[in-house]
Each structure stands twice: as C-alpha cells, then as structure tokens.
Amino acid sequence: MYNRAAISDSPAHLLRRFADREERMSDEGFHEDEAPGYTFLGSSPAEKFLELAILHRKEAKQLRERAVESEAEGREEEVRLLLRVAETREQRAQELELAARGEADDPSVAEVLDGEQEVLSAYVPPTMSFLRPEDLPPATVPMHMRPLPPGNIPRALAWVKGLFNRKRADSAAE
C-alpha cells in the first residue's frame, strides 16, 4: 500500500500523467494569429488611467479641504504647501485623463523620458578624487592570511637538502 503511494507521487509518474492529459486536449479553438476572445476585467490601460485620475482628483479635493482647515487655524505656510500639492495632483489627473482618451502617452513614461536628457548631461563618472595613489598605504597581506612559518621537520629537511646541494656543488667544481 505504501509503495504504491510512493510510486504514484514520483516525478516520473506525475510527468507521465500530465503528458497523457495533454495528449487528450483538443487544438480546435487555437489559432496563433488571432487575439483572444476574452478580456480580463480592468485590464485596459485606459481604465487604469481613469482610475488613477479619479484617485488623484479625490486626493486633491482632500488636500484643498485640509488647506481650508489650516487657513482657519492660521497656518499660512501649511496652506501654501497643501495648495501646491493639490495643484500638482490636479495636473497629474488631467495628464492621466488625456492618456486614457489616447490623446497623450503614459505620463509616467513621458516624465521619465523628459528627465533622461538631464540625467545624461549631468552624469559624472565616479573617480577617486579624494584619494591619490601616492597617499594609499602599501598593500600588505593580513596576518591571518600569511603562510605559516615552517616547523621543525621542514627546517631539518631544508638543512639536509642544503648540505647535499653544497656537496654536489663542491664535487662539480673539482
């Protein structure tokens, strides 16, 4: 019983079952060149732009109401700021409505493309102007990364090797 459950859950068995189902599917209503006969709700860009425009208008209205309250309380700086923000929200709502009607491009894309030339003209490649190469300390290897000094056995082997090399050099010189 347990073996059959383990076999039926194996990846090979699952792939085989999927392939069997796929073979039984029909290709009658499938044409690559045709647009799908269905649409998802709220999927058109125009509807999204209109929805965003409505939100911007609501926010502008709330900002104006808050500005009236602030004016009654005598906070002139806050009133000017709120009215300025409300005005920009209204302008953005108008841009979104134009985009929804197809009279203009997506305002977000247009805004990015407008600022692109400014960014490119003001680009400064990164440099190390605050440090000169002669001011940098010499490169060193940290103590924990340095090789260990040779122990007793490698030192003794090196000494013996040195003796043999000297005797060989002496015998070659004679």
Keywords:
single chain; 174 residues; mainly alpha; 65% helix; elongated
Per-chain topology:
Layout: H1 2-8, H2 11-24, H3 45-73, H4 76-101, H5 107-121, H6 152-173
Helix pairs in contact: 3-4
DSSP, total strands? 0
**Main beta sheet strand tally, sense and closure:** none
Oligomer: single chain
Helix content: 55-70%
Helix/strand/pairing category? mainly alpha
Structure in words:
With 174 residues, this protein is an all-alpha fold. The chain has a domain at 44-122. Helix content is 65%, strand content 0%.
Overview in brief:
65% of the residues lie in helices and 0% in strands. With 174 residues, the protein is mainly alpha-helical.
